[in-house]
Amino acid sequence: MTVLRVILGDQLSTRLEIVRTADRAKDVILMAEVGDEATYVKHHVKKIAFVFAAMRHYAQALTQAGYTVRYVKLDDPDNSHSLTGEIERAVRHLGVSEVQVTEAGEWRLKEAFEDLQTRLNIPLTILPDTRFLCSHDEFAAWAYGKKELRMEFFYRHMRARYNLLMDAHGKPCGGQWNFDKDNRQPPVKGLTAPKRLSFKKDAITREVLDLVRARFPDNIGRLEPFHFAVTRTQALKELDHFITHCLPSFGTYQDAMVTDEPYLYHSLLAAYINVGFVYPLEVCQKAEAAYRAGAAPLSAVEGFIRQILGWREYVRGIYWRHMPDYADMNVLEAHEGLPWFYWDADTKMHCVKQAVTHTLDHAYSHHIQRLMITGNFALLAGIEPRQVHEWYLAVYADAYEWVELPNTLGMALHADGGIMASKPYAAGGNYISKMSNFCQSCHYDVKDATGERACPFNSLYWDFMNRHRDRFKGHHRLNYAYATWDRMGEAKQAAYRARADAVRHLMRQGEL
Ligand code: FAD
Ligand code: DLZ
Ligand code: SF4
After folding, report:
1. Is the CB of 371 under 6 A from ligand 1?
2. What is the atom index within ligand 2 of the atom nearest the CA of 48?
3. Which end of the chain has fewer CB atoms < 10 Å from its terminal CB, N or C?
């Protein structure tokens, strides 16, 4: 009895049951490059190339290990261009007795596979994705009975559960759970980042780059230089490089932003963890080992582990708990169109230009650029969440809806009314000026809020706070902002509002 075992482009992991339990003599593994996945948003060309190159290398490794792999390339003339279509085609051709898939990372595919279950006349089994450290049931059990979910408490629960950074008495190492006060420093003058690895392109990757160049001429982004890791072995090199050269300063510069430094001390691992090349637990354990060996300070290691063990698992929990309605939430009633400069970086705002340029060049920008530059601008300017969501899902090599949507709609845009975070991450130019050297090279003046060259973030910030006062006024961490606004007096408040209107007008005209 042959089982057809389906592996999606972000499931490239031999530890998944779908591979572990395969009978190499009889079963067939199906992998397919399909138009539907490549076009459901207009992905960055580097993202498509990374996923296809990773898939092809993974398929090659499986074949070399003795598995039978049915690999459908994008330009296969019989390609039906949907994952379910390819499953049905394989079932017809191979005469299999059962189909197995690992649960997908996006709601639309969950629905598609459940629908296929009702149409196929053989069983289709959907297996859990065991790469995650918190299963759906565990998350539900943790959330049960809580009026409000907060990441910090989930993270503590996970630290204890996985015995990460815990001392012999079951207490957090260093006597506290969170070392944020030692982290998140502004960049020192002249801060540069460690050199990063660049992986050589082999014949498989070069073929993929030619395919993507030919098939996606209108998609955004620079395809080359292309130096992503495309195998687990290469991704592990990236992990080791990060642990040795970047982790010790990760915490300190976690929130720093520097002109022409897209990576600073960040790990670049999200794309590799998300496709399955490296496992979240092994990443956390390696980081912990560096701390225990005295190679990295506790504050850096704790800050790093919190991102993976805490935030990454937490956002997945939120996604599956609140979908499908989550994707349509827009509690702040934001209806502006996404400005064109998100696609071409053509703006005089140096901070936004930097974040978008890094994105177009590398299919990457680091967390604070995503949250406090492009995300913050969209929040303050009132851009419609769905358009912002589709942009984030398209442009980053690590973007899959389960992780991108709660980060965008919840964390950055507060469109979920506080499910993800109790208060919006809204900030004016002051924050950007403190945490970066961007303002020094900007057309706009960060110290001005109302003049013709005034930093757009300043007036937009106050206008945003004022527009949503009813919603946010009770929040203790925002009281100070409202007290400041009230002290300004009517004339100044009117000038701020007028400048915010002018900024929105310039934005709509494509002149910001
Ligand atoms: P590092 O800064 O080195 O962090 C280490 C790891 O922690 C990351 O590799 C990632 O696995 C994890 N991590 C850190 N922060 C988060 C977070 N908030 N949520 C989930 N995991 C986290 N991450 C994605 O993986 N895919 C996305 O599509 C994505 N979209 C985002 C959209 C917005 C608006 C924001 C604000 C954040 C988004 N993030 C997303 C989270 C985070 O920005 C990226 O994981 C990170 O920038 C990837 O770079 P890195 O691997 O160098 O991360
Ligand atoms: C992102 C992506 C792309 C561009 N192409 C494919 C593909 O052709 N075949 C495939 O199996 N997966 C692809 N992926 C990843 C899927 O979109 C991903 O599995 C789902 O979004 C679920 O997370
Ligand atoms: Fe960004 Fe304003 Fe600074 Fe310019 S002045 S870089 S727009 S924060």
Report:
1. yes
2. 4
3. N
- How many other CB atoms sit within 10 Å of the CB of residue 100? 22
CATH (residue range 341-509): 1.10.579.10
| pLDDT value of position 243 | 98
User: What is the structure's pLDDT at 192?
Assistant: 85
What is the Å distance from ligand 3's center to 353 Cα?
A: 10
- If one residue of 8, 393, 398 were mutated to test the ligand 2 pocket, choosing by the most ligand atoms within 8 A of its CB, it would be 8
Looking at the domain 136-194+246-322, which fold is it?
1.25.40
What token pair was written down for 209? Answer: 């780059």
Residue 442 CB neighbours (<10 A): 20
Q: How far is CA 35 from CA 79, 140, 343, in A?
A: 9, 35, 22
For every residue of 304-366, which 3-state class applies, written as one string?
HHHHHHHHHHHHHHHHHHHCCHHHHCCCCCCCECCCCHHHHCCCCCHHHHHHHHHHHHHCCCC
Q: What is the pLDDT of residue 1?
A: 80
Domain at 3-127, CATH homologous superfamily: HUPs (3.40.50.620)
Mutate to test the pocket of ligand 3, among 259, 455, 507 (most ligand atoms within 8 A of CB): 455
Q: Parse the chain into domains and list their residue ranges.
A: 3-127, 136-194+246-322, 341-509
- The answer, yes or no, to whether ipTM is higher than 0.95 is yes
DSSP character for 172? B
User: Whose C-alpha lies nearest to ligand 2, atom 16?
Assistant: 9
- For residue 48 and ligand 2, the question of a CB distance below 6 A is answered with yes
